[in-house]
Design brief:
The complex is a heterodimer of chains A (about 220) and B (about 160). Chain A has a single domain, classed as 2-Layer Sandwich (Muramoyl-pentapeptide Carboxypeptidase, domain 2). Chain A has 9 helices and 7 strands; from the N terminus they run H-H-E-E-E-H-H-H-E-E-H-H-E-E-H-H. Chain A has helices at about 5-10, 20-25, 50-60, 65-95, 100-115, 140-145, 155-170, 195-200, 210-224; strands at about 25-30, 35, 40-45, 120-125, 135-140, 175-180, 190-195. Chain B has helices spanning about 5-10, 20-45, 45-60, 65-90, 90-110, 110-130, 130-150. The radius of gyration of chain B is 19 Å and the shape is elongated. Classes of the chains: A alpha+beta (about 220), B mainly alpha (about 160).
Chain lengths: ~220, ~160
């Protein structure tokens, strides 16, 4: 006879919810002026002036290479971010991230992104078969305070995403930003894929995101 | 803490509470006692509420045991978070700590039929096992959960 025993479903007592809920995740201490996450790890607040200063300083020192430097900073930081994220999530939910459903993992990432104040995040996997993942980010501070220019400006985030998804998928993935709020777009689009497959798109950046993605997918179809 | 009591404490920083503020404080303090009572009832009745729901659900969907277990876990946590949100009289707690995170998980599994049935059975059990007064306290939070988790059913893509 079929049976579901509810007592078995709740035998370990915990039914975890949203680990990254902002009121639970971020703690501040007015006396010491420190902010920490719920595990006691220090958090760093980036004031608008500092973000603008980073852009201005790098531009002055490095000129056109400043984007590459920011991308590499993002990659470096993204590796550590991935390791911390996986550790926190698996500790809290009591299971290895490999055992998590994709939607659950992704939901944690979205909440984490938002709670850290990096904007809202969404992942589009509809071009996965062609070898591309698309990330959309709204309200990015790195776009909001970018200096005026004619190219997408969120190099730091592109580096973070590249490192994060490379570690997640076990393949070396590059990341290219194809639309930017700093250029008036509705959101920041990032395309993730193998470096040699993304390479051609670097010269198409004046096109719309949809056009770039379509061309990339078509070149895949022709190549295969 | 209940937001209303917190507000009264903030406002009283430079004066004694006025008579109408005292009245309001008394009202919220007594409401807190009722909320605590309801919280304890819900906590102690967790199995008694959900086991009949599980049994009836299994009769309705005998082939879907795995999905049902998942749906039951969703609503067990919904009721736990509703109970805490009710105790604090704070809908934002429920939204941020659970619903905002759970909504994608519920919708991606496309188990709306099971979830909707489960919610109706749970409502019936609550009506049977709680007094009207206790039920009235938790009901707005359940409605909030229903609205967030099941209310957008029409927008979910139908399986191709």
């Amino acid at each position: 006879m079929l049976m579901i025993t509810v007592a078995d479903l709740i035998q370990d007592e915990r039914l975890p919810g949203n680990y990254f809920a902002p009121d639970a995740y971020i703690k501040g201490d007015f006396e010491s002026g420190l902010i920490e996450n719920r595990r006691g790890d220090r958090l760093l607040a980036l004031p608008e002036t500092l973000i603008q200063g980073i852009y201005a300083g790098l531009e002055k020192e490095l000129g056109p290479s400043s984007g590459v430097v920011l991308f590499n900073c993002g990659r470096w930081w993204g590796k550590n971010f991935y390791a911390r994220f996986v550790e926190e999530v698996s500790d809290y939910y009591g299971k290895n991230v490999a055992a998590m459903e994709m939607v659950e993992f992704l939901q944690c990432l979205k909440q984490c992104w938002k709670t850290h104040g990096w904007g809202t995040f969404d992942l589009d996997v509809s071009h996965y078969q062609q070898g591309f993942l698309v990330v959309k980010i709204w309200n990015s501070a790195f776009a909001a305070f970018a200096p005026p220019g004619n190219r997408p400006a969120c190099f730091l985030e592109a580096g973070i995403l590249s490192a994060f998804f490379s570690q997640l998928t076990g393949r070396e993935l590059h990341c290219l930003q194809t639309s930017c709020e700093s250029l008036g777009a509705d959101c920041n689009h990032f395309i993730l894929g193998l470096p040699h497959r993304l390479k051609p798109a670097e010269v198409w950046l004046e096109e719309q995101h949809e056009t770039i993605l379509e061309r990339l997918c078509m070149s895949t179809a022709e190549g295969s | 803490m209940q937001p209303e009591i917190k507000t009264l404490l903030y406002e009283a920083e430079d004066h004694y509470l006025k008579p109408e503020e005292i009245e309001s404080f008394k009202y919220h303090a007594s409401s807190l006692a009722q909320r605590l009572e309801t919280y304890e009832l819900l906590r102690d009745a967790e199995l008694a509420l959900f086991q009949p729901v599980a049994d009836q659900l299994l009769e309705a969907f005998p082939q879907k045991q795995q999905e049902m277990e998942l749906a039951l876990k969703h609503w067990l946590s919904v009721l736990r978070y509703c109970a805490m949100a009710m105790l604090m009289n704070n809908p934002e707690f429920l939204q941020r700590r659970l619903l905002e995170w759970l909504v994608d998980l519920v919708q991606v599994h496309q188990m709306q039929v099971i979830e909707i049935n489960l919610y109706q059975l749970l409502q019936a059990q609550l009506q049977e096992q709680l007094s009207d007064q206790n039920l009235a306290l938790v009901q707005p939070f359940l409605a909030q959960a229903e609205d967030t988790l099941l209310g957008r059913t029409n927008l979910v893509q139908l399986p191709g």
